[in-house]
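User: Last request for today: this protein with iron/sulfur cluster, please.
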Amino acid sequence: MKTVLEERKSSICGNRDRGISCERESVSGAVSQRACVYCGARVVLNPITDAYHIVHGPIGCASYTWDIRGSLTSGADTFRNSFSTDLRETDIVFGGAKKLTAAIDELMEKTKPSPKLIFIFATCIVGVIGDDVDAVCRSAEAKYGIRVIPVKAPGFAGTKSLGYRLACDAIMNLIRPHAKQHKPQKRFGVNILGDFNLAGEMWIIRGYLEQIGIPVISTITGDSSYKTLLQAPSATLNIVQCAGSSAYLAERMESEFGIKSVKVSFFGVEDTVNSLLNIAEALGRQEIMEKAQKFAEEQALQVLPIIEKYKPHLKGKKAAIFVGGGFKAISLIRQFNELGMEAVVVGTQTGKKDEYEVINSLVNSDAIVLDDANPAELERFMTEKQADILVGGVKERPLAYKLGLAFCDHNHERKHPLAGFEGIENFVKEIYTSINSPVWKYA
Ligand code: SF4
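Assistant: Here's the final one, the structure of the complex with iron/sulfur cluster:
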């Protein structure tokens, strides 16, 4: 295949070949679209609204801030700030631990409200020089009586998925000691895992659950706080929205706190309705099940006419999808099918084997399915398959525009919700407007 490196071929499936190589490190020199380990950890932890985040590394790593991950808050907005130890050559030679201690001291002295929770992200260079970040965190905890949690996430240590795991470990590190000490009483209600409240999406889902009669105990991590996270062990059920980032946390919470979990997706009519019903079923209460059925039916009936209105203008169009996780890609394929469109290229940064099997079962046999793609591959397959629109994130947007293709931002930078029944309307209108824009005639 032209423009495809030999080492990458096993991660790309077309025509009859459907086995895919995934869940492995990126091929050196392939210019992967995938984010690094540190970025994976930051995605999960950054939405904790009253946490302070210190990036222990060169200033470049700290460019990853709230501004490119716009999760919303109903309380504190501390998380919109970013702090860095700004490591330089001399620190790399003589070590950066003192600088990190000084950064924590400065934060404690100068910031208001006074920090209760600080995450220390150790990035690539710290992984190389070997600062004892654990020791610095332990001594800061002892000195100030607050939680200072290390997240040792050098970008080179693995894939973005490792970053997710490290973030989940950090959350467990936060809540476990409290749970051990206070032994929380079980309460009827759920934790929402893996929703980062982009454009207020978590509030939409929380609203649905509350209308059905399901209390939300804790949200991890969209619109969460130090205090609300500590309540998580008392929940009856975990609902896992972004499985890629949070399925591991759900497993840990099941083994340590006995909380069962159910995977959900609130993208598209089919997945939103099924998710509400699955949550109600998992909770095992008849009245909740009946309410969920009634609510889902009513909401679906309201949104279906919108789909029918736009469907004739979208039927037969071809979509390319490149997103973070497999679960979202699956929902998007279903959403395009609901609109009469076909997904001709489908890729993810961190999809798992079983997710790719579902993806393959949903697309036509000649669709291209690829893991951990790079720009050259995406451009090639979008052109070959004559895609009309690309759904992706900020790194994919220029690829679409360069090719004169419509684009839909389905990542953390967007400002309008795409989840839930409200999100379906936004999504359909955005796809319609973007594909049918007259601008593509002039590209
Ligand atoms: S952790 Fe490493 S790969 Fe990630 S942004 Fe920093 S330097 Fe780059």
